[in-house]
From TrEMBL:
UniProt cross-references to Pfam families, sorted A to Z: Glyco_transf_90
Species for this entry: Oikopleura dioica (Tunicate)
Name listed for the protein in its UniProt record: Oidioi.mRNA.OKI2018_I69.XSR.g16412.t1.cds
Domain spans labelled Glycosyl transferase CAP10: 220-464
Signal peptide: 1-19
Membrane-crossing segments per the record: none
Keywords recorded for this protein, A-Z: Signal
Lineage top rank: taxon: Eukaryota
Length: 497
């Protein structure tokens, strides 16, 4: 038998001083991101820590949990295992495997006493590495992770729209503005992916290609065709000049209240999900640990912002910072659109590590060319977000409410001084806003939910649109790399205590 070693990375705050301890027998493991036979980029779970009286902790404990990944014979299996301390009485655990885990048991204990968590031992079968192509039925994926059907208002009106009509409309739309669009027409048929791209700058198809390749390995995608917007600006809208709707089926990474594009998670969030524990240093899990190194009571009570000059309000914010340095620390990291104005708005700021942003209690979110894709990461850190009023949105924005999940700012940011002063005077209420936002965004950006946003949308399009799914002669096939490492595509579902 080959002996394997588990690489265990336990992220803790070295300056932490705590007299609180968790009790293993009362503590629980929530295996929300693992299911036998379902391939994921990363397998993950949560540790919810309770003390000996059964009270849930709300801070980091003195003792540490320990995770073991064991084979059928009880030997440790070679995987990358990471525990992330979210500093609120919880740990995020995740496993990146580079081989097939045919039969595996996950065991969680108190590192000091060796006692197991109340529901620690869980057995799984056929946890494949992410290069395996072992798609399961969509319904099985949905049931395994208890996911809801996607109900999208923007799909209303597409019930009788045919693929042929949609394709004609979009080709006509592109022909009228060839230099301002970057689009790809995708066809998925019998599990194979084809596309034809339009426009001069279509390099971002690497993100939509990567997404579809990953999804095709996870679930059996329906035969479907759709158009992907590779740019920032949405397209499906009301034609105001002709006073009629110009609606067509277009998938975008974000949209605007005047448009009707079908919204999926941003390429940034999707890239974080697919590259987790592999090539990225910042993702929706790691920021919950690195962004919480500074305790709430120790944070600097100033509004913080760093970003490039992609919108006038960002420049105005930098100017406000110069006038109100006791309340605002804001600066431009790169002058591109307004190079001649650097002397007015302040010198270019040096890079600030993202984790250091959260040394400040108030994170200011201002649009870029469209919605600023950093918002989910800002919310997942241990600060509160002051969000500019905006017509732009990402896939999870409908779940957020002003004053419940963020402090709203006027479009021109003219009330920012007033809002920061209010926040300083109402600290307990502001802390609850931050916690409420974290609960929502943590759920909406979980890897299985990010993947499900795409899977459920493709399923809905295939159900709503009419006509044949056809591959035209100009399309090229997107190649799905074949894994040369062992995989097991057993359809049996097997999760046991």
């Amino acid at each position: 038998m080959i002996h394997f070693v588990v690489l265990l990375l336990l992220e803790t705050c070295v300056s932490r001083v705590s007299s609180v301890r968790f009790d293993a027998e009362h503590s629980q493991v929530n295996y929300s991101g693992i299911a036998s036979g379902i391939t994921l980029p990363v397998y993950y779970f949560q540790l919810n820590l309770f003390d000996k009286n059964g009270e849930q902790l709300d801070e980091s404990p003195e003792n540490n949990p320990n995770v073991e990944v064991l084979g059928a014979d009880g030997s440790q299996i070679r995987s990358k295992v990471e525990l992330l301390d979210t500093k609120n009485g919880r740990f995020m655990g995740r496993i990146k495997t580079f081989q097939l885990l045919e039969k595996v048991t996950i065991r969680v204990t108190d590192e000091d006493s060796g006692k197991e968590f109340g529901n620690s031992r869980r057995r799984f079968e056929n946890l494949n590495h992410d290069e395996c192509s072992c798609p399961v039925e969509i319904e099985r994926f949905q049931e395994a992770f208890e996911l809801e059907h996607r109900e999208d208002d923007v799909l209303i009106g597409f019930d009788q729209m045919s693929y042929e009509s949609n394709n004609e409309q979009i080709r006509e739309y592109f022909a009228a503005r060839p230099n301002s669009c970057a689009l790809c027409h995708y066809v998925i048929k019998a599990g194979r992916i084809y596309r034809q791209c339009y426009g001069k700058h279509v390099g971002f198809n690497m993100f939509s290609d990567a997404t579809l390749i990953a999804l095709s390995r996870i679930v059996k995608l329906p035969d479907v065709q759709f158009w992907m917007n590779l740019g920032d600006w949405p397209h499906s809208t009301v034609n105001k000049k002709r006073k009629e709707e110009q609606l067509f089926q277009m998938v975008s990474w974000g949209s605007h209240q005047d448009f009707k594009d079908l919204v999926v998670p941003t390429y940034d969030l999707m890239d974080s999900t697919l590259g987790m524990m592999h090539r990225l240093s910042k993702d929706q899990f790691s920021v919950q640990s690195t962004g919480r190194q500074t305790q709430w009571t120790e944070k600097i009570e100033k509004g913080f912002f760093r970003g490039r000059d992609s919108r006038q309000e960002r420049l105005d914010l930098a100017e406000m910072s110069q006038k109100n340095p006791e309340l605002i620390d804001a600066a431009i990291t790169r002058y591109f659109f307004f190079k001649e104005d650097e002397s007015k708005y302040g010198p270019r700021s040096e890079h600030v590590p993202f984790a250091d942003h959260f040394k400040f209690k108030y994170q200011i979110n201002v649009d870029g060319t469209v919605a600023a894709y950093r918002l989910p990461y800002l919310i997942l850190g241990n600060s509160v977000v002051l969000k500019q009023e905006s017509a732009y949105y990402e896939h999870f924005y409908p779940k957020l409410e002003a004053w419940k999940h963020f402090i709203p700012l006027k479009r021109d940011l003219s009330d920012i001084v007033e809002k920061i002063q209010w926040a300083k005077e109402n600290d307990a209420e502001v802390a609850e806003i931050a916690r409420a936002a974290h609960r929502v965004v943590e759920k909406e950006t979980e890897p299985v939910r990010v993947l499900w946003s795409w899977i459920s949308l493709l399923k809905r399009i295939s159900e709503k649109m009419t006509g044949e799914v056809e591959i035209n002669d100009e399309m090229e096939e997107v190649q799905i790399p074949v894994s040369h490492r062992p995989c097991s595509c057993s359809s049996r579902q097997h999760n046991e205590l």
